[in-house]
Structures are given as C-alpha cells and as structure tokens.
Amino acid sequence: MNALRNPIRFIPLLFLGAIAAGTLALSMPFATLDGTSPSLMTALFTSTSAVAVTGLIVVDTATHWSAFGQLTILILFQIGGFGIMTAATLFGLMAGRGFTLRDRMATQVERSRLDTGDAVSVLKLVFVITLVVETIVALILTTRMRLFYDASWGDALWHGVFHAISAFNNAGFSTHSDSVMGYQHDAVILGPIMLAVILTALGFPVMQDIRANRLQWKKWSLHTKVTVAGTVVLLLFGFVAVLAMEWNNPETLGPMGVGTKLLNAAFHSVMPRTAGFNSLDVGAFRDETLMVNYFLMFIGGGSAGTAGGIKITTFFVLFAIVASEVAGRKDAGLFQRRFSPGIERQALTVTVLAATMIFAATTYIAAITPLAFGDILFEAISAFSTVGLSTGITAELPPTGQLMIIALMFIGRVGTITVATALALGGRDRPYRYPEENPIVG
C-alpha cells in the first residue's frame, strides 16, 4: 500500500507489470510465425525493450513474430511511450519545475502537488497530441508505401501504422528486417519519421509551451529555451559529423548521391536521440562516427518525453556550470537566468549515476564475452539511453549479458525519471552544518 500512496514507487511497479504481461503474451506459441513458444529470455527481452521504448532486439521482429506478436509489441511500446510522457510530465509538475500546462496549475506547482483536474488535463493533452501526430504520420507512410512500393492497402496500412507509432514513441521497432534501410532514398518516408521523433524527443512540456506561446521566444520558459536550442545544436552537430565522417565510407554514405547523403546524414543525426531506426548499417560505421554516437546517445532528448539519456537540460546545465567556473563567475545559468544549487547537484547526480551504470555494465559484459569493447560500450549506452541502435551484437550476448541489457533498459527508462523526481522532492535541510574545509581539486 505504501507504493500506491507514493507515485515515485508506483510508476516503476506499473511498468514492471506491463513488462510481465508482455512477456506472458509473447511466450505464447501463436506469438511466433512458426508456432513454437520462444524462450523466456527472448520474450522478456522483447517485452522490456518495447515497454521501455528502446528497440533493441534479439530476434528479427519481421520474421520471428506473428501478427499477434507484432501487435503485442506495438501495444507495449504505445503503453510505454504514453506512460512515460504522462508520468514524467506529472512528476515534473510535482517537483515544481515550471512545466506550466495551464495558468490555474501555478499554485499547485508551488505546493508541489496536483489535484485530479490537473492530472486529467495532462492526460487529455498528451492523448490528443499522440493521436493527431500518429494519425498524420501513419496516413503519409501508408499512402507512400501503397502507391510507390507496390504494397497492398492492408500491408501498407499495417507497416505505416506500426512505423508511425514506433516513431512517435521513439521505440525504434520496425516490421522490416533491415529497419528502414529500404527507404534510404525516400524523403517522404524518412522525413515524417524524423519529425515525429524530434517532436516527442522535445518532451511534452516543451510541446505545450510552444502550443501556448507559439514562436514567441521571450515567453518561453527556460526549460523550453534550453531544450529547443540544445536540440538544434545537437542535430546540427550530429548531421555535420556523420556527413563528414561517413562521406567516403563504401559501406554507408559512399555510394550515394549528394542528396541522398544529406538525407541519410540528417536522418541518423536524429536517431541517436533515442529513436533506434537506422537507414544506414550502424555496424559499418567508422570508429569516429561511433564515438559521436556515444556522445549523442548519452545525452538523449528532452525531459518528460519518450526520449532517454541524461537529457538535454541536464547536459547544458553541466555545460553552463563548467563555462561559469572557467570564466570565474559565481552563478551558472543560461538565457539571463541562473540555476539554483539544487538543480546543479541534481544534474551532476543524474550524470554520475548514468555513467557509473554504463561503466559497470560494459565492464561486466566485456569480462564474459570476446566481443569488441567498442561494440559493447555502444550497446550499453544504447540500452541505458533507450536508443535501440546496435552494431549487431545483441543476439550474440549470453543470457547474463542480455539480463544486464534488460536491467539497463528498465533503469534508463523508468529510473532516470524517478531518481530525478526523488532528488527534486526529497531534499531536507539538516538543523546543523559541518565546518567547511576544501580538498585540493585538479
């Protein structure tokens, strides 16, 4: 009963329940194409990846799972994405971080609580945005697949709907064995997927802020300004880096024309934001490109959305702290606003905890497998940041390695939200302070 009274504990239990239900459904013989029951590990891994909207797979979604199995996966990542958006937004409001959905919420945020009407408003807005965006993207993809890829209306509709929902939820699951590599020359397919991923990677509070204040920059909250500006910077950085590093790679961009190179570089600059689709063979990337992906995946997207990682705001808070320290300024901040010491500590805590978990998982998997260290590190960051991109080693991991990836996906998806909220709500002042003494740093 204590978990029911405390949403910070209750949300992880709900996600565990969804994973358990998904594992049971995917364990049925009729969930696979050949009619045999998959192993418990396969069902558990796939269910966790779907609920955590990650997209890492140990079996081919297109050829292993039946229509029932694929539908189950779709339902799981829709539940996971919707649940994450609503839970993270409500937690943000509870923590009083300025995620104002309506003017009447202001007093509730100041008291760090929400009433039932506020919660219903959040659910309604998330539901409407989800329905509208997924429907538009599904219609575009369905029509394109039917008219230009000689698919029947039934097949086109299924593939279009599946990819639209997967993109909006940043899930990265595909009904094609090669993800979206078959569409690497088609901007009408890749474009809507990119836009859906970018939108939800911004986070729901940003969407609402932009909806309420349109493009009036001065009226945007600091959270929205940092998220939007950070998104633009990281997308441009990823685009230029992938384009430059893979331009002559014969296994990725090399054979393509200039226009197609630009399209695929842009597409892949978006995907490490935690979407997981790939129009290029990630396993063929050069080492320097993988390094850029480590960086982009670790940061992830915006808060209170379907993106993972430590989040854009966390990264830029830390960046501002470093810049202020180097410049000798007492306060750190951005856009004529300073950060509180509490926010600075939270950003540092989330980042250190994330790095520690990735380090521990990478070290463990490297110790039990002969796989290349770079590929293992890529897999660990992808799992924790719920990205879903892989160099192709997921199915090669031993059961204990797959369990480690499962743990990373769950912690990266649910843990970051609950930890950040607990830090924001759980601060208590001691009635005393110890004497100050500073060690030598650096």
UniProtKB/TrEMBL annotation:
<keyword id="KW-1133">Transmembrane helix</keyword>
<keyword id="KW-1003">Cell membrane</keyword>
<feature type="transmembrane region" description="Helical">
    <location>
        <begin position="71"/>
        <end position="99"/>
    </location>
</feature>
<feature type="transmembrane region" description="Helical">
    <location>
        <begin position="188"/>
        <end position="206"/>
    </location>
</feature>
<dbReference type="GO" id="GO:0030001">
    <property type="term" value="P:metal ion transport"/>
</dbReference>
<keyword id="KW-0812">Transmembrane</keyword>
<protein>
    <submittedName>
        <fullName>TrkH family potassium uptake protein</fullName>
    </submittedName>
</protein>
<feature type="transmembrane region" description="Helical">
    <location>
        <begin position="403"/>
        <end position="425"/>
    </location>
</feature>
<feature type="transmembrane region" description="Helical">
    <location>
        <begin position="347"/>
        <end position="368"/>
    </location>
</feature>
<feature type="transmembrane region" description="Helical">
    <location>
        <begin position="294"/>
        <end position="327"/>
    </location>
</feature>
<dbReference type="Pfam" id="PF02386">
    <property type="entry name" value="TrkH"/>
</dbReference>
<keyword id="KW-0813">Transport</keyword>
<feature type="transmembrane region" description="Helical">
    <location>
        <begin position="41"/>
        <end position="59"/>
    </location>
</feature>
<feature type="transmembrane region" description="Helical">
    <location>
        <begin position="226"/>
        <end position="245"/>
    </location>
</feature>
<keyword id="KW-0472">Membrane</keyword>
<dbReference type="InterPro" id="IPR003445">
    <property type="entry name" value="Cat_transpt"/>
</dbReference>
<dbReference type="GO" id="GO:0008324">
    <property type="term" value="F:monoatomic cation transmembrane transporter activity"/>
</dbReference>
<keyword id="KW-0406">Ion transport</keyword>
<dbReference type="GO" id="GO:0005886">
    <property type="term" value="C:plasma membrane"/>
</dbReference>
<feature type="transmembrane region" description="Helical">
    <location>
        <begin position="119"/>
        <end position="141"/>
    </location>
</feature>
